[in-house]
Amino acid sequence: MSHIDPDAAWSLHPQVSVRPEPFGALLYHFGTRKLSFLKDRTLLTVVEGLADAATARAACRAAGVADEHLPTYLRALGTLAESEMLVERAA
Amino acid sequence: MSLIDAPVRTVHSTRTDVPVGAPPPASMRLVDHFERGLDAPICLTWELTYACNLSCVHCLSSSGRRDPRELSTDECKAVIDELERMQVFYVNIGGGEPTVRSDFWELLDYATAHHVGVKFSTNGIKITPGVAAKLAANDYVDVQISLDGATAEVNDVVRGPRSYETALRALQNLSDAGMKNFKISVVCTRQNIPQLDEFKAIADRYGAQLRLTRLRPSGRGADVWDELHPTQAQQRELYDWLVAHGEDVLTGDSFFHLSAYGQALPGLNLCGAGRVVCLIDPIGDVYACPFAIHEEFLAGNVRGGGGFQEVWRESELFTRLREPQSGGACTSCQFFDTCKGGCMAAKFFTGLPLDGPDPECVQGYGEELLNDRAASVKAGKLEVPRHSGDHSHRTSPPRERSNLGPVRLTLSRRQDLQAPPVSACAEDPLAGFTANSTDGIATKESGADRHHQGGFRSDLA
Q1: pTM for the structure as a whole
Q2: How many CB atoms lie under 10 A from the CB of residue B204?
Q3: What is the CATH number that goes with domain A9-89?
Q4: Contact B52/B97 with Cβ under 8 angstroms?
Q5: Contact assignment for B8 to A63 by CB distance below 8 Å
Q6: First and final CA of chain A: distance in angstroms?
Q7: Could you say which of A30, A36, A40 has the minimum Cβ distance to residue B117?
Q8: Subunit contact B11:A34, Cβ cutoff 8 A
Q9: Residue B235 predicted with pLDDT over 70
Q10: Which of A63, B331, B390, B434 could form an SS bridge with A46, CB 3.0 to 4.6 Å?
């Protein structure tokens, strides 16, 4: 499982569509045609906040993720980055 | 099946406790959420027309002739608007042959401009180099070329003369246009399962991805299912092949009944009918699944006041399908959790109970039931349900003509008519009138009469 740089700025891939669901969210990438499920509303908040946050770490904090849980959330973001759902952007 | 081809990733934060300010982690498995249904389908199948240039013997929708009640261009666009509002990621467009609709390309552009991705299935008849170039330029379009044999011999028996040639020409055009990752869609049959490696080689040759799906006894498929469906040994062969190829080969989640062999295949592995997928047919009827065109699985019509959304969210049928299902006779089977009793449509159209084993149950329980069924049908005690609304060409599959020889006929003129028949309003007021004059305006020659009428009619036209 890959990690993302927590101090870099990230955003959703422009071809990714997000649909919130009671259990979290569905993500669909129109380029790779991959489907991902976010099983957690907090993770959805993090993902949605990425574009406006200076760093991935800041997006997690803004979503209310406690420091001790940061690694697990960053790992989840890493999984999304691996499947090209997230892309690094210029800060 | 869930019809979903997309490789699926579940992403969660694997926490053991809950961070401050965040809701508790979901305890339900994802598949449980799906079984209870979503507010909108993940994707859906939309058959745009029942018209088709081919007459495949196993056609799931018994297509051929256009239905005069087909949704108009504007009605289709209204459905697309609704799908956009509901955030349906993409539609699988099929038919019939969807590209024979004259507004097909317009609807395709409309959908992709409205953030509804399109994957359409075609036999390739309209995939010219020009069309292929247009398709290659649109990121939101995916094309699926149907091919049911890796050789013309195997393919054309099922799909019709020269359909192999048509499909391969389309593949060549797409490949030449630089289209990447389009699909070759194969319905697995007894005749083509020995060709799996050859199919893969064809896909690789054109830079395409192979998609294998299950033959269902739906539509005309019911008529040929006994001869075409894979044997038990072939099912095992197919399963092993799919396991070996993993996510490289798509299945539309259609072989989850094979998971009872052991390892689950990639995909959601559930019947998504009315839960995460459904079918909109050419006249706007909404069915639980594209393989279940029968009034028992009809949930409503998009032409109703509440549109598609109301049918999806409130129909009595879909509500029922989202309730926990009884496994019936399968509950005690140790593989029930993986195969879930198999495919609802396959059971229904083979006359098996819906809460029992799939006709192709890998444990062989379906086969026993099928034998009993055959006896009951023969004794007249059981009637197997038939597909609703047959749109097959009236002359197909072609009638047996081999022993008739050429049809002999003699062309002649009807003796009782002076001129070809015309409609009442185009009838020359002087028709049949013969003047007793010699000034040349009218003569007894019927040829002159016809000449006059011909001129009259072309003015009207």
Answers
A1: 0.82
A2: 12
A3: 3.90.930.70
A4: yes
A5: no
A6: 24
A7: A30
A8: no
A9: yes
A10: A63
